[in-house]
Each structure stands twice: as structure tokens, then as C-alpha cells.
Amino acid sequence: MCGILGVVGRTPVNQLLYDGLQLLQHRGQDAAGIVTANGKTFHMHKGSGLVRDVFRTRNMRSLQGNAGIGHVRYPTAGSASSLAEAQPFYVNSPFGIVLAHNGNLTNTDELKSDMYRTDLRHINTNSDSEVLLNVFAHEIAVRVENASLTPDAVFGAVEAVHRRVKGAYAVVAMIAGFGLVVFRDPNGIRPLVMGSNVVDGHTEYMFASESVALDCSGFKLLRDVAPGECVYVTFDGDMHSKVCAENTKLAPCLFEYVYFARPDSVIDGVSVYQSRLNMGEMLAEKIRRQFPDVTIDVVIPIPDSSRQSALQLANALGLPYREGFIKNRYIGRTFIMPGQAVRKKSVRQKLNPVALEFAGRNVLLVDDSIVRGTTSKEIVQMARDSGAKKVFFASAAPAVRFPNVYGIDMPTRAELLATGRDDAQIAAEIGADAVIYQELDALEQAVQSVNRELDVFEASCFSGCYITGDIDAAYLDAIEAARGKGKAQPEGDDPSSKLVDLNLNVAEQNLM
Ligand SMILES: O=P(O)(O)OC[C@H]1O[C@H](OP(=O)(O)OP(=O)(O)O)[C@H](O)[C@@H]1O
Ligand SMILES: NC(=O)CC[C@H](N)C(=O)O
Ligand SMILES: [Mg+2]
């Protein structure tokens, strides 16, 4: 799950982009990049690591111009450690185009070979986003007339992208000398919002994965970019928009509400915070129904993402809510770290129990989800080591049993704790006395009740039903085989080793 950002302003946007990326940091911790447009020149700086580590004052100074795009990366294709796959990507023809992508394409291999044979374009990395950029660039190129580009030509290019590309994609791109182009896939799987700010009677536009980036930058949330929609803002500030796909439906990824997004964001009309409170309420109902005789002394959240659900669950059950685990504020999110070894080590570094909240008590631990079980196994052990009598474990999301192919790195069934196990076996595996999972329809209801217009979700990791309709067992087998051969994120790839090389790793370019 990456974070993307795009802005057309009236004054230099380098600081605005840097601050915006900081606000989207929770969506990707592996690499960060910014490109600004100054006249017909792009200025680019990107590198491996967190935003605060990638950009130094001298880099910021070089990022001149009143428009730009930015990206924070959580890899789902290619390799976690490859600087070459850090975004934004650049291609020099036509005009010069840069692009940043959140999501994952499901027909990358096919596109790549079309690209080589028909479009005569070379793809130099294993990133699906580089492929997406080249499809877009090709479709723009065939619509250029007399070196000029109309809004209709841009929309035509995005229509063609929607026809050729499958999967999930929220995109911000810039075409040198013309403007900022943003678009969202026809199912609206990944989030993308649009905001504005009026300066001296002129409107500035900002687009971001999450509304939190707009709020804290002084922009007003206008609306979500619609599924299949393209918005084109010229560098002079003229805004044009069109839905560029025929069969569109809004099917946002449920896992955004469960885990990825910040609770203070509003995605597709749903306050993530409110949806998480609702998840807690629904889960409390299930516990009341299924475990009427179980005595629970205290409800303890697993920081960070489960806090709101756990709080509401405790309220609904009339139980005390206690912060039994203290989170080290300097450790990032463990689930989106590359490699199981580093994820495992990080849980212990990140969370430490307050023994007096556990000693002699029956505790109900609440997390937003159990994916690989890395967190839950360690946490249950910590609770037991701290003297808990019984340890129950509740998950605000249903069991994750199927790979995600739309931008979350859970590509193989074998690495998912719940695959092939029932609740009792899962409890045994994590060492808990019992596990309680949210039901899928209850989770959907928790989100839907905040925005009644939402009736479909991308919920494949819980249900095995893939919204784009092109994913079958053979496709999943092929990804698993590729993962086995070391394609995609290598296991054990330790980002701490990357940080040492950080400044050497940084790529800096001024692109004419
Ligand atoms: O079963 P697992 O594979 O461990 O994955 C699930 C866990 O990972 C996430 O936490 P993370 O530390 O990434 O982020 P958070 O601080 O936002 O909760 C999520 O909130 C769960 O706690
Ligand atoms: N999580 C994402 O959105 C990843 C974007 C892209 N597929 C990459 O691997 O870089
Ligand atoms: Mg967590």
C-alpha cells in the first residue's frame, strides 16, 4: 500500500509535498520520492527509507517549481530493496512524463510483452508501476498532434489505459509543459481524494491517497476521485475531469478501513475512525452471542491500529479498557516491513507489556487483524509471561485466508496463518485460549453504516472473490511459484542494512 500525492499550486510546492508525504508515511516505509515541475524541467529526488531520511535540505532546495508529485513505497512487485523501483518513475517520451502509483497490476507480464513487441518500449525493472507509466506514455504519444495535447487526448489515453491495464491503480502523473493527470481504476480499489485551496482568487489543487494529507496541508477536501475517473489540471490551474471507463463500480478495499488508512482520514465518504468504532461494536456483539459464559477481566488493545475497535468493544461489553502494551514511538509498522525476520524482531522492539495489567487476569487482546500471525504469537506470549490467567484474542477483521493481488503484500496462501486452519487451530498456533474473528458481513456493515451508498467492497483476502474477475487458482499458483523463486520481496531482506547505505543509495536527477 503506497501513498501518493500530487499538487498544482501557485507557489513552490517542495515543502508541501514533503509534509504531505510525512502524513502518508504509514502507507509505505521502504522508499520515498518527489518530482517537481518547473517550466518544462522536472526535478527528481528519491531514495530508500523514510521520508525524513531520504530528503536533506540540499535535496529540498533542488526541488523547484509550483507543481509536483510524491510517493512513499510499500513494495508489492519487484524487490523491496531496489532503489531502481523507488517512485516516481520517469520516461522521456512523449514530452517527459513522471508517474507514481498505489496498487498492483494483475496483467503485468502480458503488458510487458505487448510493450516490447508492439509499443517498442523497454522496461528496465520488475516494477508493475514502470509498466503502467509506459502504457500511459504510449497512449499519450499516439494522441499528440502538432506537439500539443488537449484534455480530450489525455482522457482518451486514460480510457485506453483502463482497457489495457488490469488490477488496482490510483495514479498521479505529470506531463512536462502540460499538467498533472490523476486517475483511479474502474473499481476504485485504492483510495484517492481531491482537495483545493484558494490563494488570491486562484485555486490550487491537491490529490492524495488519504484526506489526512489535505487536512494538515490547509487544503479542503472536495471529493474522492471517482472509479475510472481522470482529473487533468494544467500547470496554469485549469481543471478538467471525465469518467474514462465504461463499467465502473465503487468497490474500495476493505483492508484500508481495517488497517492501512489513518483513522483520521475519510475514504469514499467513510470516516475510518467511525468505521473502526463500529468494528468494535460488531465484534462485541459476536462475543456476547458466542461466549456468554466466558469471564473477561480486561480488554487490551494491540497498538496502534486496533485502538478504536478495542475501546468501543470494551465500552459495549461494559469491561475496563487498559493500555497493557506500550508502543515504542520510533518503530514503524511491522506488517509492511520487508522480510519475516525483521518483522518478528520488530514486534518485540515495538511493543512491551505493562505486567500489572496482566497478572492474574483473564485478558481479551484486540487487534485489527491477524495476517501472518507475527504480532499475535509474540503478543500472546508476552501476556502469558506477564502472568495472565487466560488469554483471549479478538480480531476486528475476519480470518485472512486468501492472497491479496491489489497492493497488499500477502501473495501466498502458505504464509497466511488462517489458511487451512479453523479457529481452534489458529488459537493453538498463536498460543491463545480462544480466538474470535469478526464475520465478513459484520465488517462490511461496520463500514457501510457510515456511507449507505457503498454496497460492494474489494474483500478478496477474506472471501477469495476477486473484484476484477481475472484472478483464478492458476494465477495465484503462478505468483506463489514466482515468490518461491525469489521474485517479489525476498524474505529476510533487512531494511536496517539499507539504512546504513541510505545516502549512497539516493538517486537525484534533474530531468529536462
Ligand atoms: O499477523 P501479522 O502478520 O503480524 O499482521 C497483523 C498485524 O500487523 C499490523 O500491525 P503493524 O505493526 O504493522 O501496524 P500498527 O502499529 O498500525 O498496528 C496489524 O495492525 C496487526 O497488528
Ligand atoms: N503497495 C503499492 O501500492 C505498491 C505499488 C507498486 N506495485 C510497487 O510495488 O511499487
Ligand atoms: Mg498492529
From TrEMBL:
Pathway: Purine metabolism; IMP biosynthesis via de novo pathway; N(1)-(5-phospho-D-ribosyl)glycinamide from 5-phospho-alpha-D-ribose 1-diphosphate: step 1/2. PANTHER family: AMIDOPHOSPHORIBOSYLTRANSFERASE (PTHR11907). Pfam families: GATase_6, Pribosyltran. Its cofactor is Mg(2+). It catalyses: 5-phospho-beta-D-ribosylamine + L-glutamate + diphosphate = 5-phospho-alpha-D-ribose 1-diphosphate + L-glutamine + H2O. HAMAP family: PurF. One of its GO terms (molecular function) is amidophosphoribosyltransferase activity. PROSITE patterns: GATASE_TYPE_2. Binds 1 Mg(2+) ion per subunit. In the C-terminal section; belongs to the purine/pyrimidine phosphoribosyltransferase family. The active site is at residue 2. This is Amidophosphoribosyltransferase. Catalyzes the formation of phosphoribosylamine from phosphoribosylpyrophosphate (PRPP) and glutamine. Keywords: Glutamine amidotransferase, Glycosyltransferase, Magnesium, Metal-binding, Purine biosynthesis, Transferase. InterPro entries: GATase_2_dom, Ntn_hydrolases_N, PRTase-like, PRTase_dom, PurF, PurF_N. Its EC number is 2.4.2.14. Mg(2+) binds at residues 305, 367-368. Residues 2-236 form the Glutamine amidotransferase type-2 domain.
